[in-house]
Amino acid sequence: MQAYETRRATEAAVSVASSLGLTADDAVVLHNSNKLTLRLMPCGVLARVAPVADQSARFEVDVAQRLAAAGSPVAALEAPEVFVRDDHVVTLWTYYEPVTAQAVRPADYAGALERLHAGMRKIDLPAPHFTDRVSAAQLLAADRDRTPELADADRAFLAGTLARLRRAVSKSGRPEQLLHGEPHPGNLLSTQAGLLFVDFETCCRGPIEFDLAHAPDEVGDHYPGVAHHLLRDCRILVLAMVTMWRWDRHDQFPDGRRLGIEWLSEIRKATA
Q1: For the chain, how many structural domains are there in total?
Q2: How far is CA 231 from CA 180, 200, 216, in A?
């Protein structure tokens, strides 16, 4: 979000917190992209704020509530409602002080993801298919107005990679289930309560390898029953998707264009 949008989003979060009797005299920005993540002080509650046009908040809250009831390793909600303030939607979550120890061990990461997947198999919730997310990247590749700085050769290469690997993963024959969608290290908290996943707006259905593709390479070595050839395809597919997003002229990811160039090179090496 731009500075003006950030200010208004922060005001919306403070307003919601105050209406619930929480003291929020200040807000610390923890993450700023298409959504704003704030730590409200001194109450210490975490707020996620998005434009009201974003329809994922209710879905994310529903998923988090059901997974918590199933005993999955997920961050807790501070309030179960989705609040609307002016043109923003606000959700409130428990803030966890980070454990500043050594990096998460791959075996522990894999174990937490396996428990999350087990909980996801217990809940019945309509969710998009992973191919819907691939389709969004493919549409972006075809839209020159949205990606004006992407060279024609790179555009053709990314479009071809997305199409080929989408087919390969879809036809793999692997069982499909509800997935986190983006269980990368940024969405895994190391807390005093253990490893907890956050950010469920990207949940989708697909093979577990699609989720594992977002985790560090070593994690897949500790997750039982992985189809490693499929995991390789999923890793390249996911990298092609996030690379495509970096070329969107509306992308607000920090240093996104440099990463887009760097990841293009990685994909070419991986598919050579």
Answers
A1: 2
A2: 16, 21, 12
Residue 211 lies in a domain: yes
Taking a C-beta distance cutoff of 8 angstroms, is the pair 177, 130 a contact?
no
Q: What are the pLDDT digits (tens) for 160-204?
A: 999 999 999 999 999 999 999 999 999 999 999 899 999 999 999
The pTM of the full predicted model, rounded to 2 decimals, is 0.92
Residue 35 has pLDDT above 90, yes or no: no
Q: Supply the range of the domain harboring residue 259.
A: 106-271
Q: Is residue 98 part of a domain?
A: no
- Residue-level pLDDT at 18: 94
Q: How far apart are CA 125 and CA 59, in angstroms?
A: 9
